[in-house]
Amino acid sequence: MRLKIGELAKRAGLTVRTLHHYDSIGLLRPTARSESGYRLYSREDVTRLFRIQTLRRLHLPLTEIATLIDREQTGLQRLISEQLEIVDQQIKKQQLLQQRLQTLHHLLEANDQLPLDDWLLALEMYSVADRYFTPEELLWLRSGQQKQLLDQAIRPLITEVHALMERQTPPSDPAAQDLAVRWITITNDLMPNMPRYVLHLSRLHRNEPGIQALTGVNGELIDYISMASIEVRYGIYRRYLTEKELRFFKTSSFQNADAWNTLFSDIREKMLAGIPPVADEMQPLLRQWRNLFLDAWGNDMQVVQKVRDIHRQETGVLLDGGLSDSLMRYAREGLIHLEAQLRQATTKEK
């Protein structure tokens, strides 16, 4: 028994126009035609149409169905597996959306009088935060403590920074340096047990215009604070070093600021995990520290030794995002061990 196109369309729940289209692209061509030229579809054609409709329910384009429809069973099984993975990803996205909506719902119940800007910030933050923060950081971020800290400590500083920048106050100005000290002190104490949080927060504000607009923090502001903190350290070094010895410091410190901050986060993570600073897995990080440090001082070992002596006397030179006294002591122990290994290797070569 063969079906005319109208009969097949009715039984399959399709339009005649759809079957015409399938015919024109070679996806489903009728086995025969009547003497009058009408399309006639066989049982095999109906089976093929069923397979086409099954694949269409997987939201595949017709061009892809055309290449898949004649595959062996193993090919179709692989296709189904791929589609299952896609569905799993969609489910995870929906679950994440559900979590965000629940968080916002709870926040609304607890703070139904939040200003509009706070709501916009919360919505924008929840929409992008998963790309920047770890699950542990997200829990803290969504706990409400972030907003309290923002209101009490960070927002006033943001206002001060913008005021200085609008007046074109150079980072070398004492007011800018004082602000940098307060900013870095607060951010260093922000998440003592989450070493990458401040780094992730900085990247968020550099890359997300929506967050920048709502918080007032952007790459320009972050760079201004960074330059002011470099000026603080530069002022201390000037008491002990000549201009010639200092000639590489500012440029190297600013150009390598992100590398230093990432390195501080990596080493702090190892320290919090209880890994000894002399462990083998610390060697790549300590070598990177050594290379960045040498770059800041023109690879002049005499100047480097002077700087190390300064560090033992002046705690102010440790002012940097993510750097603390405990981290410096931890890194110094590892660096002493590394230097001993390098000297030993040099002696063997001789």
UniProtKB/TrEMBL annotation:
Q: What are the GO MF terms of this UniProt record?
A: DNA binding; DNA-binding transcription factor activity
Q: Where are the annotated coiled coils located?
A: none
Q: Is Ion transport given among the entry's keywords?
A: no
In this protein, which residues make up the domain named HTH merR-type? 1-71
Q: Name one Pfam family in it.
A: MerR_1
Which key words tag this protein in UniProt?
DNA-binding
| InterPro entries, A to Z | DNA-bd_dom_put_sf, MerR-type_HTH_dom, MerR_fam
Span-the-membrane segments of this chain are none
Q: SUPFAM superfamilies, per this entry?
A: Putative DNA-binding domain
Protein name, as recorded: MerR family transcriptional regulator
What organism is this sequence from? Answer: Undibacterium oligocarboniphilum
